[in-house]
Write a structure and sequence with these properties.
The structure is a single chain. This protein is of the alpha+beta class. Among the domains are: about 100 residues, no CATH class; about 150 residues, no CATH class. It contains 18 helices and 32 strands. Strands 2-32-23-1-22-7-8-21 form an eight-stranded mixed beta sheet, sandwiched between helices. It has a five-stranded antiparallel beta sheet with strand order 11-12-13-14-15, with no helix packed on it. Strands 10-9-19-18 form a four-stranded mixed beta sheet, with no helix packed on it. The chain is globular, with a radius of gyration of 26 Å. The two termini are about 25 Å apart.
Amino acid sequence: MTLRAAALVGAALLGALPAAAQPQDLPLAYIGPGAGMAAAGSLFVLAGTFLLAAGILLVWPVKAVVRLLTPAKHGPQKFKRMIVVGFDGMDPGLAKQYMAEGRMPVLKKLAESGCFYPLETACPSISPVAWSTYATGVDASRHNIYDFLTRDPCSYMPMLSSAETMTLPKTLNLGFAKLPFGTEAVQRSLQKSQPFWKLLGDARVWSSIIRVPITFPPQPFKNGTLLSGMCVPDIQGTQGSFSFYSTKPRPAGAHIGGQQYQIRRSGNVIESKLTGPAGKDGAMKCPFKVELDDAKKRAKITVGDTTCEVGLKEYTPWMVVPFDGLTGIARLYIQTWDAEHFELYVTPININPDSPVMPISHPFVYAIYLAKLHGQYATLGLAEDTWALNERVIDEDAFLKQAWLICDERKKQLWDVLDKTKKGFVTVVFDTSDRISHMFYRFLDPTHPANRNSTPEELAKYKDVIPQTYAEMDKLVGELLAKVGDDKDTAIAIISDHGFCNFRRGVNLNTWLKDNGYLVLKDGAETSPDWFAKVDWSKTRAFTLGLTGVFINRKGREAHGIVEKGPEMDKLCRELKEKLEALVDPLDGQKVVKEAFITHEVHKGPYADMAPELLIGYHKGFRHSWDCATGAVSKQVFTDNTKSWSGDHCVDPRLVPGVFWSNRKINTDKPRLMDMAPTVLDVFGVSTPAYMQGSALFGERKPAAAAPARPAVKQPV
């Protein structure tokens, strides 16, 4: 433990007490189907917290002396500090256009003085895969992440690709002894290989890691801090469930992606309840009250012990939402307020960083420290509520306000770690560019199917949202460069995990597989609901789930597999590849699939065996349809994408590279995302492990070592 880490613990100790003092036997909430998380705590934990903090404060001076007397564990360093800022989803084509138009003067100057290149993304070109490649320096077959979702081969049901829940003995570590006291549900990361910051930490190089995707659950490492990003759940254990309260009657058969409640106004008061995680007697509830002043158009909103005042189309600050033994945080937003009706949107209830119900940072108190320093902030992995806009629960203005509030929180975190890290590594990922690109891409294409009901005024109002977003990211880089100044010992890289393109047409490959005899439904059914409800697995040879691939129903792997691994499976994969690459859209005759990659031909690592057998590289404009991603079989293969989510990147990865700027020249004009981990290690004089597939970008170009079939180092579980 360094002095810096000890100071963090000391600063956050007071804030840790409420979290540590939670009552035992809290129920489990869920992270997707069948998964759970525990909200644990007791007097033992409280005592252990005090003992741990006291121990840290007592021993750190001794460790500091030992550190000074022990030789460094790394070689000569190229720079004292390296900063990597991630702009998720920033596209090199749009960036080049906006630099030419004068919208991104800072990054244009950086490109001229340093460098700017497209950055080869991962295959598949989807955020969990790409950011895992960034962290580990290897492809999906070596880090084990192929999508947001995978299937449980025993049940064919979806499960998160990144984490699973395990039940383990609960112990209290007192240093000299471990005291057992029951069991607990804990999260285990399914990402294999090691993130480069763990290797840095082992070499005694400090790292500050902020909101890099697929860092939940947070894995401990030496000499650094980490705040988890993508896949952190909300308080209900989902990946983001909003609530919507309306005085309007719900239309028969209406479906929205969150939770909808009908409310009644009594005089100037509306009362209802927020829904939390499962309790002993059903879902926990927290009452709230809205007091309306119609004349002033101001409303007083009370949640628990917190009251604030807002107007129409205004967000509240983060409000603490108390449940039985735990708390979350949420923002509330008045969407409609007129003579007839009132509508209130509530963000997904985030884990409270000031009192986390489960670890969302390393060390545990780091999340609390940030909350004490800057105030409450979004902790949900997918913090910007894209689905609420998709379902028209909120409008474009509400979404943009939310996105920029979250961006402002992230900037505070960046400036904090930048100020505190004069030597070592800093990386912070901003999601703003990705989420806004997903939801506003249609305004770059007035003919997009999602614009059919848009007025000319709406098209004009939002046509510059994406260019303005890129301009704001440019200003952020300007602030960063101003803070760094003329520091010759700081290397800077600005990157994205992938680019972006239009998403006009959805493709239900499950329907195509059914029409071509590869997927069979029971009793002659023509369609099937989500999660393969009517699929006859005894006759089905192939299926798809998620956004990236096609699985073979393989004997010995899937519970009811019928296709033998070997020549039979290889022939089937070849057959599917040929047919999919010949598929055309009947609407206009366009080719749909640029390339269907046979996974074992492009990925040779040890974790390819459980992956989809084919990875679908669509042409621009196409993607797995929404119902295809959830295992449904619809009536039609092709559908217009009419949702606000109108841009995407789940296409052939060669079509959507990311961006790479640096204040330093690099040794290639074709940098790759998998080069980032070796580059960071090389900057700090840490040897690149043989299993990493990338090459360092600074200095002399060294060929990447041939990766062995299995990593040369023992992989953490």
